[in-house]
């Protein structure tokens, strides 16, 4: 199968006529018919049915048309890769609520009016590592607590990923006005046990966190839990109910803009590394370097 054969197939499918396609392609009609017969034999399908008006795609032919159209679109992008027609691309995978809205606003303003494709995926640690190592994302942004640290860094080494530390932090409780703890200067873990905690769905590394003990309270004692992977829904729940979440002080500005409070947890000795990852020995694109620069500026501040 050759790329040219696929181009010929598309022309026939879109004109609905072998003769008309031959005219447009400047080839003979018998040559096109022979090419289609060869393609059908190679794929072991029937591509066209003849009718009074010309030819029509079979069901298998329709599938082939859809896939071929996508292939030709990607080939067209590749052929223009050195031109300004192709947008610059940056893809980031991040732990939920680690990319502040202000940073995204600043990044948008830098590229406003320019051709850029930006993708942000919010995921847990396992998926972030998979995205970056599998080339789905150029960089990942995550935080690692002391219960996860050894296992996560081992996984990063296994996938030949490099971790760059941005800041260190600990856990805080985030509550809305419907939670009786809202006006407190600090809270303790025993008090938090009374309320439902909302957090993203578990992965292997989040299960390691259940072994943490804070002020004699194990995280496994929190039985009332809601799992959500939608930042807007989590914030809405905390605004409207007494639900709370654990978070970092590093993210306090994004919570406070929605009327939520980020409150210290008494005797909390959890240590958290917050940073970003990339494929080791691989140079970042200029778009990713600017994004990382904004990250470093925001979190070191």
In short:
The chain is of the alpha/beta class and 301 residues long. Helices cover 42% and strands 23% of the residues.
Structural write-up:
It is a single chain. With 301 residues, the protein is of the alpha/beta class. It is built from twelve helices and 14 strands. Strands 4-3-5-14-6 form a five-stranded mixed beta sheet, sandwiched between helices. Helix 1 crosses helix 2. The chain is elongated, with a radius of gyration of 27 Å. The termini are far apart. InterPro entries: LysR_HTH_N, LysR_subst-bd, WH-like_DNA-bd_sf, WH_DNA-bd_sf. Keywords: DNA-binding, Transcription, Transcription regulation. Belongs to the LysR transcriptional regulatory family.
Helices and strands in order:
Elements: H1 3-15, H2 18-25, H3 29-43, E1 48-51, E2 54-57, H4 59-79, E3 88-94, H5 101-111, E4 116-122, H6 125-133, E5 139-145, H7 149-158, E6 161-169, E7 171-175, H8 189-192, E8 197-199, H9 204-209, E9 213-214, E10 217-218, E11 225-227, H10 231-240, E12 245-248, H11 252-256, E13 261-264, E14 272-279, H12 286-300
Parallel strand pairs: 3-4, 3-5, 8-11
Antiparallel strand pairs: 1-2, 5-14, 6-14, 7-12, 7-13, 9-10
